[in-house]
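Z., the sequence and structure:
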Amino acid sequence: MYIQNLSLHSFRNYEHASLDLNPGLNLFVGDNAQGKTNLLEAIYVLSLSKSYRAVRETELIRHGAPRAMVKAQVAKMATLDLAVVISEAEKKRLLVNEKSTTANSFVGCLNTVLFIPDSLQLVKGSPGDRRRFLDVQICQIDPIYRSNLLKCQRVIRQRNSLLKEAWDNRAQVSQLPPWDHQLAALGSKIIFRRQEVVQTLQDFSQRAHQTISDEREELGLLYQPFFATEDDVLAQKHYSQGELEGILVEKIKELRGEEVRRGYTLVGPQRDDLIFRINHTDLKKFGSQGQQRTAVLAYILAELELMYQETGEYPVVLLDDVTSELDWKRQMLLLSILNEKAQTIVTTTNLGGFSTEMKERARVFQIEQGRILQ
């Protein structure tokens, strides 16, 4: 899978841009605040139907323009024309081969893996950061998971609303059982799928980490459901979907009083976590910055293999300002691995860290004030 052509119209600081991309390595060079990150954001929008950094989608529209549009021709088993149109006055439109479609059908047409400076929060950040990383990848390869996740989020919002009111009005508790049933049914499906995916990511990331670290360290990636003890996590206990639904039903009963007291849902996949370990030690608590960066790189490479296993095609890899976050050795190792497998789009402030051979293989673009030059 790769992007053949990309077009931007009134997107962020781009008035208009159209470019043909290399199926392999593409380097976008420019000073800060020229539009490099905006370009990657545009591709991400074509992949996930939404931005990873805009609070409101109208922020993506160039100042003074009525709408923004991003289009791409994507080569995969069948060539697809994808487009996202964002307007101040109308609902966002998602198009595949010029026909409007839903987000659930749109996501998965162009799969991406994103590395930005904030990606280090995968290890250092909150459980919510890690869940988002995991959910973004699963949603691209599994539309049923994405649908279940969205339904579960709606159920949790409704439960939270009732729980907030229940402290002052206990009659609201009687309205919870139908939502409890949905939470147990949907939550068990989400947790079951996550534990499957994390086991696959564990296998792939462990191999990638051994390569990056010259086999000096062993990476462990463990899934921790909200109810699991540390012993359960370390034993990598695997639960059936039926077991998970039963556990959620029991936890909902057990924590009913505490949920009413706190006014929000304490049961469900929104409280799960991912645990990174190096040589059996918690990486978040005791790992060095270098070890944390290496683990994130291994995870990114594992995402590639997961997507390839699930879809038969490698995703497009987006690397934003990779030279500021990775030392030269890790940069070159990452890019050499990616160059053999996936279309890779890299932004950087200069080409000093790239080898002559790599620059000769790549298509190099200059970005200046929202203009892309070759």
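The mean pLDDT is 90. The chain has two domains: 1-111+314-374, 119-312.

Let me know what you think.
H.
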